[in-house]
Amino acid sequence: MKKFFVHFLLSAFTVMGFQQSAQAAMVSTAQVAAADAAAQVRVRLAAALERADVQAALERNGIAATDAKARVAALSDEEAAALAQQVDSLPAGGDGLVGALVFIFVVLLVTDILGLTKVFPFTRSVR
């Protein structure tokens, strides 16, 4: 009986040593939404890095695409959100040169139509 009791205690202490404690808590909707938003931001950044023109620009600047992906993956949620906000706020056309050229063309076209200048041969003056 004593031998059985000793084996029982040894096995009980062994099993108790491998047990892990767990805690359960309520998760708010805001926490779930924040986690989902952070995941979506990371997906958008990863998709942007997959584009061929972005990879070509990275290579021109001496950055390997795999290094850039690793750095984006290492960002915290706040840093990833700030980076995604910066990417979203940048102009799509680059430095705005095309917009400036279109604006100048429209101004010259209007002044030609009003008869103040004669730049384009295809316009007729109102005067």
TrEMBL record:
It comes from the Bacteria. Keywords: Membrane, Signal, Transmembrane, Transmembrane helix. InterPro entries: PA2779-like, UCP029543. The keyword Lipid biosynthesis does not apply. Residues 1-24 form the signal peptide. The chain crosses the membrane at residues 97-117. It holds the Pfam family DUF6627. This is PA2779 family protein. It comes from Massilia eburnea. The lineage of its organism: Bacteria, Pseudomonadati, Pseudomonadota, Betaproteobacteria, Burkholderiales.
